[in-house]
Amino acid sequence: MDTSTLILDEQYSPELEVDLDRIGIRVVVFSKKAGASRSEVEQPLDLEADEDFSASESEVNSYLEFPKRGKLCCVFLINGQRHHGLDNTFIVNDLKMKYLRKRMIIVVDLDGLSGRASAAMLGACSPFSQSLIFKKVREKLVSTLTNDPHLNELASELDDEVRRLKIANPAIQAMFKNLVRDNPTRPAKQAA
């Protein structure tokens, strides 16, 4: 892995409940590629005007599998094999780190789970992601990453950077002004 493009490379080993043992988590965040072009293909609906989200030029593409390139940014491994994965909406919705969704990879190693927990997850008739143990693992993953000061600082810096950017296109500025003016849910100004 080219470490010159890494911003953050953290490893965690949080403990779960007593009978489940522990999991291993590795989070890697890459720096933004210079000159990344904007693509109109499959852009998220919440994409802001000044945000770059080119699907073909993602910083993590070279590390992801081909058929789902750019989709599964969080994978769950048992004995080195991927048993489940989450797309970048996990980063946006659960971790609340919207601007890291294209630049972060999360690997959750489930080898540290107890034998009973692993067997319950792999031997269940229901899908892997619907098991009670997986839900506990996911909760621990979210709590571990949302409480990490380095990751929060990085996400906060990116949020601030996006807030400082100005919309260059006057047509977009006019559209936003009209949208705010015509918004029926906005409370009306009271006469003095």
Description:
The protein has five helices and five strands, in the order E-E-E-E-H-E-H-H-H-H. By secondary structure, it is α+β, with helices and mostly antiparallel strands. It is elongated. Mean pLDDT is 77; it is low at 36-41.
Termini, distance in Å? 63 Å
Strand order of the largest sheet: 1-2-5-3-4
The shape is elongated
> What is the residue-averaged pLDDT?
77
- Give me the count of strands: 5
Structural classification: alpha+beta
Largest sheet: 5 strands, mixed
Determine Rg (CA atoms, Å): 20 Å
Give me a quick take on this structure.
The protein has 192 residues and is α+β, with helices and mostly antiparallel strands. The chain has 5 helices and 5 strands; from the N terminus they run ββββαβαααα.
Layout of helices and strands, plus pairs?
Elements: E1 6-12, E2 24-30, E3 72-78, E4 81-87, H1 89-94, E5 104-109, H2 115-123, H3 132-146, H4 149-164, H5 170-182
Parallel strand pairs: 3-5
Antiparallel strand pairs: 1-2, 2-5, 3-4
Main traits of this protein?
5 strands, 5 helices, 192 residues, alpha+beta, elongated
